[in-house]
Amino acid sequence: MAFRVVILGGTSEGRLLSEQLAGDDGFSVVLSFAGRTRSLQPPRAPYRVGGFGGVPGLIEYLRAERCAALVDATHPFAAQMSRHAAQAAALTGVALLRVECPPWQPVQGDRWIEVPDMAAAARALGERPLRVFSSIGRQEVAAFRAAPQHEYLLRAVDDFDPGLPRARVLAARGPFELQGELELLARERIDIIVSKNAGTAATYAKLAAARALQLPVVMVVRPALPVVPTVAKVESAASWLRALADRHQARLDVS
Ligand code: NAP
What we know:
This protein is of the alpha/beta class. It has two domains: 131 residues, 3-Layer(aba) Sandwich (Rossmann fold), CATH 3.40.50; 109 residues, Rossmann fold (3-Layer(aba) Sandwich), CATH 3.40.50.720. 32% of the residues lie in helices and 22% in strands. α2 crosses α3 and α5 crosses α6. The radius of gyration is 20 Å and the shape is elongated. The model has no long low-confidence stretch (mean pLDDT 96). Bound molecules: NADP nicotinamide-adenine-dinucleotide phosphate (NAP). NADP nicotinamide-adenine-dinucleotide phosphate binds next to β2, α2 and α3.
């Protein structure tokens, strides 16, 4: 019987892992999306969309699916889902692995202002009106209502109403390249960038562009997550799952 894996998605790593496992007869996989984007790009793997209904709903889902392993490949800022995954895994005994790329680190020439959350990011912009570029996303934009004096250019996968007096939305899907980011920042006469420390290669170019243009970046650090076994790479997650599936099979063979 195939080894049943549920992957909590939201990152390119989750998508890649699900597609790798979908091509392996030893595994049966389902990739779960929160449903945050209107234009979901379907993966080449079985998937589902939408919340589970908190920890009880997730436990029920894992049991109904006869899930043997849960992989938390959510966005580093999707802290609630990661907390729920840790609690549900502990309560059901389902093996849990987190796939998480390391946070970006500042390098020479970067002008980062690190802040703990979005409210602090809005304060860090200061009083003087600035032209701000950000891809923080629809869910977080409300924090910037406290700083309505700035002009915001907000990049997101889907267009949305930012609810800010001076804001425009630029609908675009990554990955983004350095040249395009340099042109965008120059064309829009951007003074400062606000970014979450996502750590992904797909959205790093804006930081390299900011460095080249000597622009400051207000960098929101990652929220604290439960301590669980964690790997950085899709290959490591696949090896971990293969070893787990082999042990599972060996136990079945003995009994
Ligand atoms: P969250 O606050 O951790 O999760 C809120 C709820 O959404 C969860 O409790 C769960 O609902 C549902 N959920 C989240 N991820 C799910 C998944 N993979 N499958 C099924 N349900 C899921 O996360 P968030 O509200 O999505 O986002 C928080 C932050 O992460 C924001 O800054 C957002 O911009 C960033 N982010 C998220 C994603 C993403 O794909 N979720 C992608 C990019 C950035 P139930 O409690 O009902 O199970």
